[in-house]
Design a protein that fits this description.
Elements lengths: L16 H7 L4 H18 L6 E6 L6 H17 L4 E6 L26 H17 L4 E4 L6 H4 L5 E4 L7 H9 L4 E4 L7 H10 L3 E6 L5 E6 L5 E5 L10 H13 L6 E4 L12 H13 L5 E7 L3 E4 L11 E2 L7 H20 L7
Parallel strand pairs: 1-2, 1-10, 2-3, 3-4, 4-5, 5-8, 8-9, 9-10, 11-12
Antiparallel strand pairs: 6-7
Helix pairs in contact: 2-4, 3-4, 6-7, 9-10
Length: 355
């Protein structure tokens, strides 16, 4: 009588990270973009660069063609604002779900419940290669701790979401990632768990994982010193205001963490209304123009077409999110240009990092 796998209905062989990388190797151009993106973000986090990290892009990627069109537009904006902003494209392939729903392009690239995960991994890697080869660094959220082996070599910045910041295995994973990592405050607004996550990920860890060939392994890490807190609101409250920034930075300093934050203009900070993101960015910009260097970055959910649509609608609106609502492109451009102007104002006023 068996006692194993009583609820498993099917198993398929998963492509190994090694094989996927062999099929789609990192080009010199992509590697240069990744290295430059990581270095720029590290310099901002360490206070060696007074620009603002700007993670901008769709809530999730479901259409690679629309993603490339968006990337071309964002690359132009990146070039225009490069003196004030370090613009990085948000390229999210995994979506955490409270109960149920589409889990992202890696899990279900066909958007039809066919769950062709090998295809999803391949699509994700090829898209990241294309965007990096354009000269645009990318950011993503890591949800499944197996996924970094497949695509982390193409990522300049990563997020750990509000639902997983308190997870031990995600803190362990972050401690071994080669890129900077932001931890979001919890869904109820608790920022202390993000501060604790930053402290944990900075240390050495030993845990079970997989090798590039797909074999089970014991992973040992040296710790990631490039982690930071992201404020995204929660529990019915926002936390992008000056008082909230003060409180979190004081708590960071008390716990031996760099007193700095990135602020997510979406999610609870905008009341889940994408059209309110510019107002959030305006408040953040006011703090920056007043000389605050503790705000090191922002996150903005943006796509070609504003708003969101339900998956299953036929046909889908091209360039519109099928998960959280996003800001439209024209509104994104305007908001980011204004934000860049606030960084320039701070600099012109002589409010340097040493002030």
């Amino acid at each position: 009588m068996t006692t194993q796998d009583l609820r498993i209905t099917k198993m398929q062989q998963l492509i190994s990270p090694e094989e996927l990388a062999r099929r789609h190797p990192v080009s010199d151009a992509a590697a240069q973009t990744v290295r430059a993106g990581r270095e720029a973000i590290q310099n901002i986090l360490k206070g060696n660069d007074d620009r603002l990290i700007s993670i901008v892009g769709p809530c999730s990627i479901h259409d690679p063609v629309a993603a490339i069109e968006y990337a071309r537009l964002l690359l132009e904006l990146r070039e225009e604002t490069k003196g004030e902003l370090e613009v990085v494209m948000r390229v999210y392939f995994e979506k955490p779900r409270t109960i149920a729903g589409w889990k992202g392009m890696i899990n279900d690239p066909g958007l039809d419940g066919s769950f062709r995960i090998n295809e999803g991994l391949e699509t994700a890697r090829t898209l990241l290669l294309q965007i990096n080869e354009m000269g645009l660094p990318v950011a993503t959220e890591f949800l499944d701790t197996t996924v970094p082996q497949y695509i982390a070599d193409l990522v300049s910045w990563a997020a750990i979401g509000a639902r997983t910041t308190e997870s031990q295995i995600h803190r362990e994973m972050a401690s071994g990632l080669s890129c900077p990592v932001g931890f979001k405050n919890g869904t109820r607004g608790n920022a202390q768990i993000a501060i604790d996550a930053v402290r944990s990920a900075a240390g050495q860890h030993h845990f079970m994982g997989t090798t590039a060939s797909g074999q089970a392994a014991i992973v040992s890490t040296s710790g990631n010193e490039d982690c930071h807190v992201i404020l995204r609101g929660g529990g019915g409250a926002t936390n992008f205001d000056a008082a909230s920034v003060d409180a979190v930075c004081i708590a960071c300093e008390r716990d031996g963490v760099r007193p700095q934050v990135m602020i997510d203009a979406s999610h609870a900070n905008s009341g889940k209304d994408p059209a309110r993101q510019p107002a959030v960015l305006h408040e953040i910009g006011t703090q920056i123009a007043d000389g605050d260097h503790r705000i090191t970055g922002v996150m903005v959910e943006s796509h070609l077409v504003g708003g969101a649509q339900k998956l299953g609608k036929t046909p889908l609106v091209y360039g519109q999110s099928i998960t959280d609502g996003c800001l439209g492109w024209a509104e994104t451009e305007a908001a980011m240009r204004k934000l860049a102007h606030t960084v320039a104002l701070r600099r012109d006023a002589g409010l340097s990092l040493a002030s």
